[in-house]
Structures are given as structure tokens and as C-alpha cells.
Amino acid sequence: MIRKTTTNKSSPRNQHSNIWRNCTNFRTLKQIHALMIVNGFNSNQYALRELIYASAIAIPSAIHYAHQLFDKISEPDLFMWNTMLRGSAQSSKPSTTLPLYARMEKCCIKPDSYTFPFVLKACTRICWVTSGKIIHGKVVKYGFEWNKFTRNTLIYFHANCGEMRIARALFDDMAKRDVVAWSAMTAGYAKRGDLSMARRLFDEMPSKDLVSWNVMITGYVKQGEMESARELFDMVPKRDVVTWNAMISGYVLCREYQRAFEMHEEMRSAGEYPDEVTMLSLLSACADSGALDVGEKLNSSILEMDEGALSIVLGNALIDMYAKCGSIKKAVQVFRGMKEKDVTSWNSILAGLAFHGHPEECIILFEEMRRTKFVPNEITFTGVLVACSHAGKVDAGRGYFNLMKNEYKILPNIRHFGCMVDMLGRAGLVEEAFEFIDTMEIKPNGIIWRTLLGACKIHGNVELGRRANEALLKLEHDESGDYVLLSNIYALKGEWDGVEKVRKLMDDSGVKKEAGYSLIDSANQAFLHFLLDSKCQIPSGNRTIKSVKGKNMESVM
DNA sequence: GTAGGGTTAG
Fold first, then answer.
1. Of A234-238, A249-253, A468-472, which range is least confident?
2. Residue nearest to nucleotide B4 (CA to C1')
3. Which domain of life is it from (predicted)?
4. Which of A21, A167, A256, A487 has the most other CB atoms within 10 Å of its CB?
């Protein structure tokens, strides 16, 4: 048995209403909605409040439905607006919160003390610094800066987005600092890697609760300081699932998979139930270590949860785990069996096929994806281009590369270029690969030149090989002399693991990765106008959202 | 009906 992360919280009103108390899943929700329409309650304000609450908060998977319902309500009240903001902020798409708030302002609905904590939570989750600062201004304008909840959320926002000075000023200027404010500051220092400052706050806190302990433990875990984390873990007066998850994810991060698995056993013995997050950590441990047997057991546990309803994230993690453990058939089976999928589900299976010996199937499945509503992203194309490279399909690869740029407006990143160079090099088109590098909008990194160098060796092109080698040496001399030195030291000692680590470090940091851009859709126009109204400078025509590592980042304006 | 901690794809 594992417990689901999201609990179905009931509003006080729900407790008085049997029909809503029984509304615990999407199907029932739709039935109740149908009953409302049939019985003429679909314009009753209280019934609508319940309906919005159930779809936006109580049943997290229904948030999309909540948005559709909400759009049809002619004059939603403040409670409904706040409920929608709350639901959006905690959903998988927090970026929908700000356009919603902008619409609220446009409708001349005055916010109350509940409004801003939700909006700020969204800004924090997606690190929308500029928008969050504008919201901070609104908080002051409407006079909520002294509201305890709002102020704590503001501190958390600034601390989490790297503005420790602002967070500190807000914190110092508080009449009564509660444990939430202390924990927010501790988390902020820990996040920027200042563990000694974080620890000082943690030790100075007048009182600590479970969350403060978890914040400090997580701080150590994120910096790989597992010994300190363990020390606190042994000292903590009470543990919850988050405490266990922090430790498990820490051991996975520092590749101590066996310890992570042992922690999981220990956790169950202590009577704590794993949740979705525990499972995600453990599945990634299986994927990285090839522990198929453990992965299969986890799969069984997951299926016991919630009458076998598999969440999208867990389905995605299972696909990845099976693919990386060499069980590609099981990976496809999980993918096919998923009732709901997202773009990550497609990316997981496409990458699984591409990287584990099934490039043709990857390409076929990608064509299937294009026939669905799912829009591929930059990660999708990494998988597809790898598949073309491994299958030797040069024409298809060139086609998909252009499709990505022209149809989906995705700027190719260093991995995409790497795939193309690899593909051309493998096919013996070394000269074309060289010309291709010349056309790159971003500076080639070590991987690109090494790939080309390898191809030149195989195909016996001495002249181009020499040029690739020169470029590689120049790059390493210019940008990563220390890394090379370090790498050589490892190599001298025969520590090839170290060589690989340094090389990875070089390739990850040596090249400035350009962010991909995508257009804000028309639904977000209200948000744009909101930003413009807020005297935020946006150069004309620069209506962009940056997409970095799959996460939407707001424009830097 | 409000705030803080843990998370999957290259």
C-alpha cells in the first residue's frame, strides 16, 4: 500500500452536503454537474462554489475541467476567483495563475487577504521573479503586506528566487516572526548553498516544527552533505513522509542506491507509508542502477494504490525505469496502458526506444504522436534525432531537425546539434557535419568536436580530423584548462570514473546553453496586458516565454 | 477556503 500525496481536503461547506462529500473522483464530479444542470442549479451561486471547489481543489486531476467551468460562469464571486487561483497555483501548470489574476483585475474584482498567497505561490513554483515583484507591489497597494499569510508567502517567494536581501528585510521588519517565516528564511539560505547561515537560523529559531527540520535536512541533502543530513535525521523528534523522502532522494542523488532502498524498507518498518514522491525517487534509483527486480516490486506497490489508477508522473517514471533496465516491452506496455498521458509520457517512451536499440519504433511512435493533440518539445526531438542517428536515417533526421525549427518553432540546443553531427558523422558525411557545425547558432562544445573527431577517425578523414582536434584543444584551452588538468590527474591515477565526471562537468558548464523560445498563446494576452499595465518594459514583438530544461520561465524583460 | 519541506523525460 502506498498513500497518495494529494489528500482530498473538504471545505466546511462540504461537511454539510452529502452529495459533495461523496464527490471524490472525476467521474462522480461530472455526474453531479450533470445533475445540477438537469435540476436547474447550474446558476445557483452556492452550488457553483461547491462545483468549482471540488474541481479545482478536492480533485486535483479535474483542474482543467475547473477552468472550463469557470470560464462559463458569468459573474464569479471572489471566493470562486480565489479557489481558481489556489487550484491553478498548486496544479501542474502554475503558470495559468497569473493570467487568471490579470483577468480578475480586468473584471474589477478587488482581491482579499486570501488572494495573494495563492498568486505568490505560483510565482515561487515557477520562479517568475519579475511577475512576483509586480505582485509584491500589488500586495502593498491593497494593504496586505502586514497580513501574516501574505507576508510569509512573500518571504518565501523572495528567499526562494534568490532575493535574500528583500526576504531578510521583510523578515526583520516583522513584529512577530512565526516558525513559517523562520523556515522560509532557512530554506532560502539553504537553496543558495549557504548552509552555515541556514544552520545558524535553524539553531536560532525560537521554536521548530517538523517542516523546519525537513527544510534543514533537505538543505544538506541538496548539497550532497548526507552525513549532516543523517545526523539531523537521527535527532529529529518526529518524522513524516517528507523527512523520509528527503533522505531517500539524497541517497539517490549521491548514487548510494542500496542505502536508498534500505531507507525505504526502514521507512515501512517504522510504519510510514511511501507516497508518490517516494516512488519517484526509488524508481529513478532503479533506472540509474538497473535494479529491475526492485523496480518490479515497486510497480506492484504502485498498482495497489487507489484501485490501480496510475498517475501520469508515476506512469512516466515506470516507463523510464523499464526502458533503462532493458525491459523495453514492459515500458511500452505501461505507456499503452496509461489512461492519461502528458508530453513527458511520450518523451519517456520515445527516449527509451531511441536510446535502447529500437530507433525505428521510436520514429513510428513519433509519427503517432504527431497525429495526437500532444505538441512535441525540445526533449521529444532529442529522442527522435537520436533515433534517426542510430537507425542511420539521415534524410529523416534532416527533415525532423527542420520540422522542429520551422513548424514547432523550437530553437535547436546543443544536444540537438550533437545528434545531427553524430548522425552525419556515422553516415560518413564528415564534411557535411563540419559544415553543419559552421551553421550552428550556438558555440559547439567538446562533445560536438569529439563526436566529429571520432567520425573522422572511423572514416579516415585525416584533414578534418586534425581540424576537429585543433578546435577541441582550443576550446579546452580557452574555457576549461582547469577541468582538463583535473581530468588528466584523474586519468593518471587510473580513476576513470573521475575523468567521466569532470568531462560531464565540462560539457555541462563549458557552453552557454541558449534558452528555447515559444510564443505566448492568445489566451495569455490578458497576462501580457497585465504586465504592460504594471509598467513593466517589454520590447515590442518580444512576447516570449523562455523554456529552460523543460520548465517555462518568464521572459527576462 | 489562506503560507513553509520531498518529485518523473534528453
1. A468-472
2. A180
3. Eukaryota
4. A167
